[in-house]
Amino acid sequence: MISKKAKYAFKALKVLAQEYESKKPLLISYIAEKENIPKKFLEAILLDLRNQGILQSQKGKGGGYLLRLPPEEISFSKVLRIIDGPLAPTLCVSLYFYGKCDDCADETTCTLRNVMEQWRDANLAVLDKKTLQDLI
Q1: In terms of Cα–Cα distance, which of 63, 89, 86, 76 is closest to 13?
Q2: Residues 6+ away with beta carbon under 8 Å from 70
Q3: Average of pLDDT values for 85-99?
Q4: Percent of the chain with pLDDT over 70
Q5: pLDDT recorded at residue 101
Q6: Hey, how many other C-beta atoms are within 10 angstroms of the C-beta on 53?
Q7: Ramachandran quadrant class, 35 (left: phi over 0; alpha: psi -120 to 50; beta: rest)
Q8: What is the DSSP string of the chain?
Q9: Nearest to residue 37, comparing CAs of 66, 82, 7?
Q10: Is the dihedral of CA 129, 13, 4, 45 positive or negative?
Q11: Greater pLDDT, 108 or 10
């Protein structure tokens, strides 16, 4: 299951994607109210997304957040990795967060690893193709 933080991230990104063509930044308070997201929690989420290059922010009057990239260039997998971390069910099959399993003597003979790779690939087949454009 995705985290509540990821769910809120997608809801906020949907609002920002809907307004992408206007090129106008949206206030955190507007997004929070529109999607019923706690404002403080949303601030942290949007900051993470900005720091990872998904969003840009503008300060001052007329400031706020807007998408840095077009909605069709922001995949679900990218957002989920930023917010929730690895998408793979085990670290030994993770594409971006690889780690050796503590309880596995040899990855090449591990019978579970093949199934975990298939699980990862099946999820990525959907998550890599779905973008913010699909939310709008």
Answers
A1: 76
A2: 20, 133
A3: 86
A4: 100
A5: 79
A6: 12
A7: alpha
A8: ---HHHHHHHHHHHHHHHTGGGT--B-HHHHHHHHT--HHHHHHHHHHHHHTTSEEEE-STT-EEEESS-GGG-BHHHHHHHHH---SSSGGG-SSS----TT-S-GGG-HHHHHHHHHHHHHHHHHTT-BGGGG-
A9: 7
A10: positive
A11: 10
Q: Shortest CA distance to 47 belongs to which of 74, 28, 23?
A: 28
Q: What angle do CA 5, 97, 108 make, to 5 degrees?
A: 135
The answer on pLDDT for 110 being more than 90 is no
Query: What is the model's pLDDT at position 98?
Result: 85
Global pTM reads: 0.88
Q: Look at the block and give the residue holding tokens 């933080």.
A: 5
pLDDT digits (tens, 9 = 90+) for 34-65: 999 999 999 999 999 999 999 999 888 878 99
Residue 18 CA to residue 92 CA, distance in Å, equals: 37
Tokens of 112: 């579970």
